[in-house]
Amino acid sequence: MLQLNAKIIKTGTLFALLMASLMACTPKSEAEKMSYPELLDRLKMESAKIEAAQPNQIDTAMVNRFGEEVKVFAKRFNKDTLGSIFFWKAIVAEQKIGQFNQAIGLLDAFVIQFPKSKKVAEAIFLKAFITETGLNNKDQAANIYQSFINAFPTDPLAQDAKLLLEQIQKKVSDDELIRQFEEKEKEAGSK
Fold first, then answer.
1. What is the rounded distance in angstroms from the CA atom of residue 148 to the CA atom of residue 163?
2. Phi–psi pair at 58, nearest 5 degrees
3. Considering Cα of 85, then 44, then 106, then 173, what sign does the dihedral take?
4. Mutual orientation of helices 138-151 and 120-133 as an angle, nearest 10°?
5. Nearest Cα to 52, choosing from 93, 112, 98, 100?
């Protein structure tokens, strides 16, 4: 019995080592193998295709691949400012086709990759907005809006974040908000 247990442990250890070595040898993605000019050209081409297409004509797999390639580009060529531009194009593309979780993942990656960017505040605000409107998760959106307000109280989007947070906290529906806005416009026009 003792010999059998030792044999099982030995086999398990060998299997774990084999799996670890296989994972270490995982081939690089196509984007990781490309030179700077090749990857840049590919990103430009894919970006143009995505931007030109109507939302119902966009290939979801291509958009997801584009997002992954953008992350590779930004990581490999982290001094290149085009990385942040392509990030935004990928985020917009994911939103355009309703891939809200992927858009949020890219926003998170953007904040990590470009922590000193002037667009960090916008990225966090957009994450809250997508969480609220795309994922319809009002509670999580409220937390993100509040974090945004705390971190960026003087940002131009802070007022919008406060209003959207207030709307969530008061549980005002979008229809009610539109009605209130129209009433205010009507009152302002009659003065």
1. 13
2. -85, 135
3. positive
4. 160
5. 93
Structure tokens at 158: 């802070």
pTM (predicted TM-score):
0.76
Q: What is the pLDDT along the chain (191 residues), one digit of tens a residue?
A: 545 444 544 544 444 444 444 444 445 789 899 999 999 999 999 999 999 988 788 889 999 999 999 999 999 998 898 999 999 999 999 999 999 999 999 999 999 999 999 999 999 999 999 999 999 999 999 999 999 999 999 999 999 999 999 999 998 777 887 787 677 678 777 76
| Contact predicate 164/129, CB 8 Å | yes
Cβ-contact 126, 91 below 8 angstroms: yes
Torsion angle, CA of 93/31/36/22, rounded to 10 degrees? 150
The CB density around residue 139, as the number of other CB atoms within 10 Å, is 9
